[in-house]
């Protein structure tokens, strides 16, 4: 269960509170505020706070104090221009603060995005919950034969059952020993900051993560991509839905020019021009490496 009854009561109390304000609010984001969106088996993402909206992006780009005579159509066109030409600063005027519950191994991927403010649950001070990420059978996959950091076909039958049993048993045993080590019933008990090193990487942690929209889009471009690891991609997918409601103009531009777009190298672009001119281009005469050629073919196939 991602949230305890006490946490659900706390969220409901937060959502029932209102406060008068002169600052801009985004109706789409107000609907998400404090709500926990489940991810994986025990995880979630929820919005704690935010600043700005589509209009704030345009205001920063125009360096004005209001909408002036600009229409909604002008705003969307401006945002698309900014996204298309990589003018990132106006997007930094919007910020979001999230509460995220996620497995430790996913957190280690996530934290590589260093352009955010993070405060994580302290296992030196507090005791971690007995909650582990155990993949659904369809997400147990073999090592890819062509990608050293990717997955191949799903494991089946006895092999899948054996792997799931290992994951469950090892997680339970590690946590049992963790509890025994920190226990003070008839013993001093090992310090929590030391006992935590025995816990597996699939145990859940939590953090507050605050980031501006420009850097959030960079995160989503990488982590919502079809090639991203499934366990972090589902978090990115959940965030995409939130951002689409928060800044709809900016998100549509992001989908068109980043998430749903591709980048071609100069050599790939030259190959494409040759193909359009009717020339038969092969890997051997393309000037591309075998891997670049495969990636180029994948782009054309899409």
From TrEMBL:
UniProt keyword terms in alphabetical order: FAD, Flavoprotein, Methyltransferase, NADP, Nucleotide biosynthesis, Transferase
Q: Enzyme group, top EC level?
A: transferase
Quote the pathway field. Pyrimidine metabolism; dTTP biosynthesis
Q: Which GO terms describe its molecular function?
A: thymidylate synthase (FAD) activity
Q: What is its EC number?
A: 2.1.1.148
Q: Does the keyword Lipoprotein apply?
A: no
Query: What does the entry list as the binding residues for FAD?
Result: 89, 112-114, 120, 212-214, 218
Q: Which cofactor(s) are needed, names only?
A: FAD
Q: Please list the residues that make up the active site.
A: 223
How, per the record, is the cofactor bound?
Binds 4 FAD per tetramer. Each FAD binding site is formed by three monomers.
Source domain of life: Bacteria
Single GO biological process annotation from the record: methylation
Q: Which InterPro entries does this chain map to?
A: Thymidylate_synthase_ThyX, Thymidylate_synthase_ThyX_sf
The UniProt record gives the binding positions of dUMP as 109-112, 120-124, 196, 223
Quickly give the catalysed reaction.
dUMP + (6R)-5,10-methylene-5,6,7,8-tetrahydrofolate + NADPH + H(+) = dTMP + (6S)-5,6,7,8-tetrahydrofolate + NADP(+)
Pfam families listed in its UniProt record? Thy1
- Is Plastid given among the entry's keywords? no
* Family listed: Belongs to the thymidylate synthase ThyX family.
Q: How does it assemble?
A: Homotetramer.
Q: What is its biological role?
A: Catalyzes the reductive methylation of 2'-deoxyuridine-5'-monophosphate (dUMP) to 2'-deoxythymidine-5'-monophosphate (dTMP) while utilizing 5,10-methylenetetrahydrofolate (mTHF) as the methyl donor, and NADPH and FADH(2) as the reductant.
What protein name is recorded for this chain? Flavin-dependent thymidylate synthase
Q: Give the source species.
A: Lutimaribacter marinistellae
């Amino acid at each position: 269960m991602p949230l305890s009854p006490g946490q659900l009561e706390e969220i409901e109390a937060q959502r029932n509170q209102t406060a008068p304000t002169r600052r801009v609010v985004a109706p789409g984001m107000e609907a998400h505020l404090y709500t926990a969106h489940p991810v994986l088996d025990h995880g979630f993402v929820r919005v704690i706070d935010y600043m700005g909206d589509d209009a704030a992006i345009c205001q920063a780009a125009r360096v004005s104090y209001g909408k002036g005579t600009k229409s909604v159509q002008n705003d969307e066109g401006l945002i698309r221009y900014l996204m298309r030409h990589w003018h990132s600063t106006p997007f930094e005027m919007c910020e979001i603060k999230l509460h995220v519950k996620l497995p430790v191994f996913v957190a280690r991927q996530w934290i590589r995005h260093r352009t955010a403010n993070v405060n994580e649950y302290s296992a030196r001070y507090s005791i971690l919950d007995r909650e582990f990420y155990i993949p659904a059978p369809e997400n147990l996959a073999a090592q890819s034969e062509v990608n050293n950091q990717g997955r191949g076909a799903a494991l089946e039958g006895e092999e899948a059952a054996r792997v799931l049993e290992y994951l469950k048993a090892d997680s339970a045993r590690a946590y049992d020993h963790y509890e025994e080590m920190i226990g003070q019933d008839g013993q001093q008990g090992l310090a929590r900051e030391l006992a935590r090193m025995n816990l597996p990487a699939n145990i859940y942690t939590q953090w507050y993560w605050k980031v501006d929209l420009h850097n959030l889009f960079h995160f989503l471009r990488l982590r919502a991509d079809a090639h991203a690891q499934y366990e972090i991609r589902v978090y990115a997918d959940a965030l995409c839905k939130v951002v689409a409601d928060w800044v709809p103009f900016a998100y549509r531009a992001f989908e068109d020019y980043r998430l749903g777009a591709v980048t071609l190298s100069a050599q790939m672009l030259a190959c494409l021009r040759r193909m359009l001119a009717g020339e038969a281009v092969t890997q051997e005469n393309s000037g591309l490496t075998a891997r670049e050629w495969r990636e180029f073919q994948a782009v054309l196939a899409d």
